[in-house]
Write a structure and sequence with these properties.
The complex is a heterodimer. By secondary structure, chain A is mainly beta. Helix content of chain A is about 5%, strand content about 40%. Chain A has 3 helices and 33 strands. The longest helix of chain B is centred in the C-terminal third of the chain and has 30 residues. The chains are: A mainly beta, B mainly alpha. Chain A: Keywords: Repeat, WD repeat.
Chain lengths: ~450, ~260
Amino acid sequence: MKCFSRYLPYLFRPPSTILSSSCHTEADIISTVEFNHTGELLATGDKGGRVVIFQREQESKNQPHRRGEYNVYSTFQSHEPEFDYLKSLEIEEKINKIRWLPQQNAAYFLLSTNDKTVKLWKVSERDKRPEGYNLKDEDGRLRDPSTITTLRVPVLRPMDLMVEATPRRVFANAHTYHINSISVNSDYETYMSADDLRINLWNFEITNQSFNIVDIKPANMEELTEVITAAEFHPHHCNTFVYSSSKGTIRLCDMRASALCDRHSKFFEEPEDPSNRSFFSEIISSISDVKFSHSGRFIMTRDYLTVKVWDLNMENRPIETYQVHDYLRSKLCSLYENDCIFDKFECVWNGSDSVIMTGSYNNFFRMFDRNTKRDVTLEASRENSKPRAILKPRKVCVGGKRRKDEISVDSLDFSKKILHTAWHPSENIIAVAATNNLYIFQDKVN
Amino acid sequence: MGEDEGLHQTQLLDTMFVRGLKRKCIDGEEDIEGTLAGFKAIPSYNLQRQSLLDMSLVKLQLCHMLVEPNLYRSVLIANTVRQIQEEMTQDGTWQMINAQNSGPSSLDRLVSTDILCRSSKEQAEEKFIQGYNGFSKDFEDTQTQEGEEILRPPLQAPRNLPTNMWEMESPPENRGNFHKSLDQIFETLETKTPDSVEDLFSEVDSSYYNLDTVLTGMMGSTKMGHCDVLETFPQAAANPNSNCKSDLNELDHFVEILVES
């Protein structure tokens, strides 16, 4: 494959038609997107509690332009709406996060979570079925023993490929607040789930208990000024994890130090710029997502207006800061009024940690090349997503004269926001969730 | 097209500011500032801050009505309120409002200011600024208090006021409607007891939507008073429903839950 930075990021094109539900209801809004570790599968979760898994087609020589398109592989209802009778409270079925487990056999495993309950799903294929049992007929009914005159050996007969999703574990009743993150540990035996105030550590085999590893709930809830916004395990060191807070800080904890990691090992925080101080300073510095680089050397954080890259060895300031949509700085008051300021944008690394991607409003998403320092704004829309057309960079005009092809800040559509994106682990294929549409773009072939 | 709209809004904003400047309490603030601190002596800043405070308190009260509010959002809003309060305490505006509150000329005071000052002043009411200090109580386990919490002092405050912020800030076509529905809610909330929750919400039910639409309407217009003059927000103003959709849904859910139970 050619050096990506030469292309970046102008040559993404949609490999196939946009994957979306025809009628758009609230339940169809995509709430999470995640590639598995090989990139062969892509999972989405939606507000209706469904998980849709897409599988990449094998390359075919007859249709080279159809290289590796993603098609629906399996769809299942992961979470149902529930009712908490003690609290008299409806629990939404919305899927907050999906995380794949590394593949260990023919089956795939993934974790999905809503506000309260994490589930482990097994997704497996079946293309043969057993036939010719002695005591059961083909429909599974017991045969009358008196009619059995001969014994036969059951055989496996081929049948149409079937993909089954079965819930293998349900990890419930451990979170009082809303789960915002789940993260599989590199030991592959444990995972953590984080809510607004606590982080729990689970073993995949044990559903009835978990260890509380972080608890920031004050004894008196009236003193509460900070919540946990995201958490993730280190990709290689199973004892290390980070979590971010609504005060714009990141804490790195070492589980070897103590069982309860209330005291952090490292504390990443950037001093506030006094010239930019306003009543919204805290809100816009609140971190909405935190991600380790694949190498494990860096962490990336997303706040309302920027993406920052931190070196694990430097706590006092980020090594890189990228402006996502700085033109919104003058609109914070309105964004506070209409609650957009509380939108939780996520961020992702590309496979080689050289490019980062995050979403914005008006169906725009941004990419930043860390080496060349080039950046681009792209748009996920049906109009410019004709197959094999190349995505054109978009530009937002700030004050002054608006040039052709530019869009003015005032005409941005704040109801069209790209919160969730995913990047293939090794190739330049990206998945972008825009409300109820999933756009998959890939780097141009030659 | 978009630019025209922006221009129009800017003009409107200007007039709103002029209107805002005529408010009595601003004069008072200026006096205090002149004698006490002297910094941040721009009246529009105080106006903006006050409106932001009011807006935040309305948001908190809406959070407060939910069984399980979004903690992330409500903590950030509560911190904003604390920050404003701190600053107002520092530059003396806070005391000024307190002093004004005890006097007879309370005509120009805002609803939420009254909520804050009343509860902070009246020590007898231990519930200090329920609007934001008390909100957190509900989160953990006090289900039974839930109903009571909603019914307590802050929501009663506006009843004592002959005038409120909505009249100051809203264009005339919004005013009556909003005033009415807000009043309706306060009235409903204050007169009911916890054991008649069903009644309470069967009545609020319809007015919720009123409140919501009117609130968005109100926000569309108040922002002219306190947001930067350069700011225009045609999208948000043009389509308020989509912005408040989630809120509406939450409220909707909440009402459903209570009606079911």
